Each structure stands twice: as structure tokens, then as C-alpha cells.
Amino acid sequence: MKSISKYICLVMLAVACVSCKKFLDVTPDNVGTIDYAFRNRNEAENYLFTCYATLQQLRYPQNDAGFTNSGEIIYPNNLSDNQGIDPTGFNLIRGTQTAQNVGLNYWDGNNGGQAIFKALRRCNTMLENIDKPTDLSLAEKKRWIAEVKFLKAYYHFYLFRMYGPVIITDVNLPINSSQQTVDQKRSPVDSVVNYMVRLLDEAKGDLPVVIQNQAQELGRITQPIALAVKAQILATAASPLFNGNPDYASVKNKDGQALFSSTYDPAKWDKAAAACLDAITVCEANGFKLSTFVPPANIPANLTDSLKKVLTLETAITAKWEQNPELIWAQTPTFPTQSFCAPRLTAAAAATPIFQGTFAPPIAEQELFYTKNGLPINEDKTWDYTNRYDSRTGDDANRFYIKNGYTTVKAHFDREPRFYADLGFDGGIWYGNGNLNPEGAYFVQGRGTAAYAGPKDNIKLNITGYWPKKLVNYLTVYDATYTIEEYHLPLIRLAGLYLLYAETLNEQGKPYTQVVPYLDRVRSRAGIPGVVEAWTNYSKNPAKFSTKEGLREIIHQETRIELAFEFQPGWDLRRWKELQAVLSKPMQGWNIYEPDAVNYYRPRALITPVFNVRNYLWPIFSDDLIINNNLVQNLNW
Asked: What is the pTM of this model?
């Protein structure tokens, strides 16, 4: 991983420096040519890594719409460059997104967005010139071609999830092309999907099933990655946003060509289910499995089962890639913003607040997680939903989840292990941070300005009282200094594939007996009862899992919980056409400036999101419609 990242950084630096070989830019004078870039195997490999370069830039959470507009995170309105990130990605939920000022503009490559079409041109250049290096072996050439075809498919998929119908960039146009040729129109949804799938089908046979030389090549594309992305593409195409969505019936090219099919096609779910099964079969045959925590030598022998379960769930995300059997594909380089997710846990950290922990999940995200019985909190007949905002003091029985003797809110008790693994909260145990003693673990003190994790001013604060603990490695230490234990944030985990397969089976109309086993694999690892057991014994609606509609709700909530904060739930909510419901209510947090529990635990509205039907797809920048007369805008922008 470090090797491929190093090469990409070196090549991109060479492109940027005037005194270096600017072989990517063939238009200006006094630079190398494409022939030079492909004169031998080594130069061609450098160019291959530039095809990966845009992929590496997609790792920043503030620049991913699946993260910033998912309802999982609130970022303070008044913070910008002083936090070291561009907050433009949060514009949509604040109602400031316009076609004249597009946040996360991946069409053109500005305002936090990458220039995806430029990345596609680099990929096409690679394919056009791959025959030039005479010292490149046939086997390696086939693999490189397959990698670039995958990248082309994935870059199109990134645009597709944001914009829907896009311009298919299959070949680079000659420099002397006419304006009529250059002004291309958007292709219909089905054409874009078929194109992406064709590329992946062409690529998969020439990709390695596993990376043999992990020290040099971990991070390059494999067959399981290609199969899993194919499953994601086909599931997206089968979902309500793109499969017979009446909202888009009027969206057409200027020649009258419809860009969306207005007819629902159930066969699309069949294709998605088959793709999921293919991906799962290949993964399992090659050793992929759900991960569990194996305590290293420095972990005390008295580590409790409850903390082992929390660490199993945490390390499914933060374990080193080569040590995580569940990890199919992850971001490269490492996840860059642990500091935005961690509270101050010690007096030294509070005295010198280097980082602020400003990624703040709202109360609604906390309430998404199940009870200890594996049920939504409003469906569990044994859980006191009505009085969940009352105060309760931590006791000995819960001391590995909530500080013994500390007053917190009743909603924090009797929740599933993923709740304690994924969220930091006032009174919650935060195992790690340099302190591995189970009986003396740190806990979050969040109430009022005097509390370690409480607000210090209008910048050094978490505005809801919750932190995305899941994104912080338990070995990362934030004290007087900050020592980051790096990891690669998963893009695709086996757990996600199991849930996606369960979804496709249910949408096919398969009986719950065929669907539930894939959900239960994930639930069992999470330490909660299986679906049938949970709903039959504890639910107010015990037969919910037996209907397609009821099981769909269960699958969707299970997916949002399991993949929380991993950049995926926001995209899922879009394709399900459920994001508008999530963002139709004010996003709330606790009254963080209050030191006393009775006043702190009062929900307060922080943002009232602005989201309607048009926000399911991104606007194309208005000027682009003037430059390219064949482009049409997305609905209502």
C-alpha cells in the first residue's frame, strides 16, 4: 500500500513541477510526449498509477456526498479553513446548493469535487498506448488493461450515483475534433449501466483473485473488488431512484431521447442478485470471512466479553488491511480525518485541544441503532421508548459501556454492541487511547465548557454531543500530543455484500427463510439475536419479517447500522428514495453548554435540512450547459 501510494505521489509531483517530466500534459510546448510516457515498462507503470490517482483523492469524508448528506453527520456552520477542511460538501443539507455554485462538483472538478472526466481521459490514454512498451510482458499488459477498465467503470459509477445519466467517455476525442463532435449528450441510465457492467465483465478474468505481493501491490484492483462493484452498480440500477422512477419521466435530451426509463423492471433485481452471489462465492472461496478480534499481547487478560465484542466491531473497520479477512476493498492512502471524530478524554487533551472532534452525529443517528434485543428502539416492547430522555446513572452491570456512577441519559442503556462500538457519548466508555486497562478505561465527559470533551469556544466543539467513534482506531492516542494509528477505511466489506444480497433476494420476492440467513450472519457477529428470534420474542410487530415490505424495512435499517459512517448509507438512502424522509426533520443535538444532566439532555434543533426531489441528483454547473449545447440539466435545477 505504501509502495503504490508513494509511486502515485511521486508521479503526480512530477506532473506538477515545471522542471520535471510533465508527460501527462501533451498540449503545451517543451514537455515530453505520450511516446516518452510509454517508452518502456517503468514509465508506463508510472502512468498506470496516475490512473489510480483520482481514486486516492476520493478518500476525504468531507468531499463525499454519501457522508456529508447522509443525515449521519452535522458539521458546524461557522467552521471552514480553520479546521483544515473545505465544508462545501455540507452545503446541500443547509439549503445553499445551487446550479450556479455547485458544492462537490465532480463533473468539472471544483468545490471539493475531483475532475472525474479528466481521470477518464487518463485511463483512455493508457489503453490507447498500452502496446508501445516493448519490454512489457503479455500477462502484465492484460492485467493493466483490466485494472484501467475497472477504473473507467468505477469513475463512471461515481458520476452515475451523483448525476444519473452521464456522458459515456469510452475514447478520447482527437484534438482536431469539431465542436459538434465535442458537444456530446448524456446517455440514458440503462446505457450507462450496461457500459459499466461490460467494462467489469471484460476486466474480471485478467485481474488477480488476491494480491500476492502485499508489500508492493496492496490497493490495486482484484477480481473480488470488480465483482463487488458490479453488484453495487446493478443494485443501484434496480433500486427505486433509477428503476421506473416517475419523477424523471420528463428528463430528456434535446433530441427527445428519454434519459430514464419510466417502467419498473423487476428483472434488474435478478441481475443484481446474481452479481451479489458471484461476488460472495469468489470471496468466500478465497478466504474472506467476517472478522473477529484476536487480542494482541499488550491487551490485559481480564478483557471482558463485552469489550471484546466492541473491539471486534471496531477493528472490522480499523484493523490493518492485510490482517482483516473481511476487507474486500479499502481507501488508499489511509483515512485522513480521525482527528475530526475523537473527543478529548484527558485533562492534557482539554488543556491543549489540538483537534476538535467536529464531526457530530445527530440524535437521530443514535436512535437508529437497535436495542440489545436487536430491534428498533420504538419496536422493542421491553425497552422504555417513551422515557428515553430521562436521566439514569451508570451501574456496575453496565460499567464497560457506561461509566459507573456517572449520570447520562436512559437512551444510552440496553443498546446493541454496535451502538457502543460506533458512537462516543457523554458518559460512554472509550476503551483505548493509550489506556488498555478494562477497569479503568477512559470515558467521555461532554457536559458543559469545563468538561474535557465539552465546548471550549465556538470552534473547539462537537455540536451534538456524539462522536463517530467507529472511525477512530482504538490505538490512536489523543493526549497532550496526538499519535495516530492509521488504517484504511473500507469501501466494501463482506458484511456489506451479505446485506446487499439479502436486499436483492427480498426484492426478488424470495421467502424470508432464504433472505434472513444473510442478515443473521451480520447480526450474529454484532452480538444480537437473529431476525426471527428478535421479532418473534421481543417485537410489538412479531410478524414483520414475514412480509416483503416489513423485511425491506429491516434490511434497510440493518444496512444503515452496519455500514454507518462508511460513506455508504447516504448513497443507499438515495437509491432507495428514502433520503428525503431522513432529512425532512430538524437535525438535533444535546444542549452541550449545560453542565448538569437535567439541562444537558434536552434536544435542540441545530439544522433544518433543505431537501426535496431535485436533491436526489446533483446539478450540472450552469455554465456547462452554455458551453455544451447538447447538455440538459437534472430535474428542477
From this structure: 0.94
